[in-house]
Amino acid sequence: MKAPAYYNAVAGVLAIDVLAMLVALPVAFPSTGSTATATSTSGQTSYMNLTIAFNATTGWPQYSPANFSVPQGRVVFTITDQDSVANWTGCPCTVQGTVNGVETINGTPYSTVPTSNVAHTFSIPALGLNVVSPGLSLVSFTMDVTKAGTYSWFCMDPCGTDPGGFSGGPMSAPGYMSGTMTVS
Ligand SMILES: [Cu+2]
User: Fold this and answer.
1) What is the CATH number of the domain that holds 126?
2) Separation of 128 CA from ligand 1 center, angstroms?
3) Is the residue at 108 inside a domain?
4) What secondary structure does DSSP assign to the chain, as a single string?
5) What pTM was computed for the model?
């Protein structure tokens, strides 16, 4: 039986998409898993995409890549947060250290993020950066990094396994809720 024309068209598009993913995936998720370098595609601006997903072995939420490099200049970050929605009344939810003091959550800009959904933060004290990552969201923020160096980042949210959550599990294992950003 001959497949309808629309089926062939859809299959063709799918085949192209799969091919594009096969090419793109090793770039987005290098085989080392924890180290990556941002790509600069338009002059001074570079792009760094982070994902928070559950580690297949431990089951803990994990930033990936945890250790990465960016060139000096303007960097546009995204955080794809696959963790669940969580309320955190004690959240230091003011966005700091980004261009215009805002981050966007699913396309909407916030200078203070509602405490009703805070899964993790991405914080670099040495650069005055604090960004909040709600569960099941896409966060974007822009940052101007002017000084070369290696900066420690970490999550301030009590997402650990100890009572209180500020230690244990992903909060105590390097490469989950902490890592380094190297500016070169
Ligand atoms: Cu966290």
Assistant:
1) 2.60.40.420
2) 18
3) yes
4) -PPPHHHHHHHHHHHHHHHHHHHHHHHHS-TTSSEEE-EEEETTEEEEEEEEEE-TTT--EEEESSEEEE-SEEEEEEEEE-SPP---TT---B-BSSGGG-EEETTEEESB--TTS--EEEEEGGGTEEEEE-TTEEEEEEEEE-S-EEEEEE--S--SSSTTSSSSGGGTSTTTSEEEEEE-
5) 0.78
pLDDT digits (tens, 9 = 90+) for 72-120: 999 999 999 999 999 999 999 999 999 999 999 999 999 999 999 999 9
Q: Does residue 133 fall inside a structural domain?
A: yes
Residue 36 pLDDT exceeds 90: no
Give me ligand 1 centre to Cα 1, in Å: 53
Domain assignment present for residue 1? The answer is: no
| Rounded distance from Cα 174 to ligand 1 centre (Å) | 12
Give the chain's domain count. 1
User: Which residue range(s) make up the domain with 177?
Assistant: 7-183
